[in-house]
Amino acid sequence: MVTQVRKWPLYWMILALLAGCSTTKTPVSEPRSPKAVSAEVSSIKIDGLSTVYPLTDEIISELKFEKGEDAPDVSVKFSGTGGGFKKFCAGETDINNASRPISKAEMETCKENGVEYIEIPVAFDALTVVVNAESISRLPDRCLFT
């Protein structure tokens, strides 16, 4: 139960991203119902960072389970941050999972190809060194403080 509770904020964030991937066929000023928006989204392609692939794939599985036949066709692949940006800026994908912000060169490529985007930081990662207290006396100082 605790695991499911922790997934909800990210689940809703991904769901919001998916809803934002629809193309508008009507003027923006004209209000549309949620059913009309979801009906316009036929497929969504996600690529990029392999580290978050399992999480993204799991969230999509939950979306498909909850929405059933109403869920859009979502494909999730991973080609790395740079590979994902290359596909995204070429207009081949709708969402790019990335470990870094989009670069100036990638911004220019997106602009040249007419790809508009919104960067949404979802999480920040870090490395943690964990050492067994009994083993620490056997490690050289240079391993711990470099």
Word description of this protein:
By secondary structure, the protein is mainly alpha-helical. It has one domain: D-Maltodextrin-Binding Protein, domain 2 (3-Layer(aba) Sandwich). The protein is built from six helices and three strands. It has helices at 2-20, 34-40, 53-67, 80-89, 104-112, 141-144; strands at 43-48, 73-76, 95-97.
> Would you list the SSEs in sequence order as H and E?
HHEHEHEHH
CATH topology: D-Maltodextrin-Binding Protein, domain 2
Task: Please count the beta strands (DSSP E, at least 2 residues each).
Answer: 3
Q: What quaternary form is this?
A: single chain
The CATH architecture classification is: 3-Layer(aba) Sandwich
Protein structure class: mainly alpha
DSSP helix fraction: 40-55%
Mean pLDDT: 75
Strand content: 5-15%
- Total helices: the number is 6
Number of domains: 1
Radius of gyration: 20 Å
Shape call: flat
Strand order of the largest sheet: 2-1-3
Q: Please give the largest β-sheet.
A: 3 strands, parallel
Low-confidence stretches: 1-6, 22-29
- What is the terminal separation in angstroms? 40 Å
Keywords:
146 residues; 44% helix; D-Maltodextrin-Binding Protein, domain 2; 9% strand; mainly alpha
What secondary-structure arrangement, pairings included, does this model have?
Elements: H1 2-20, H2 34-40, E1 43-48, H3 53-67, E2 73-76, H4 80-89, E3 95-97, H5 104-112, H6 141-144
Parallel strand pairs: 1-2, 1-3
Helix pairs in contact: 1-3, 4-5
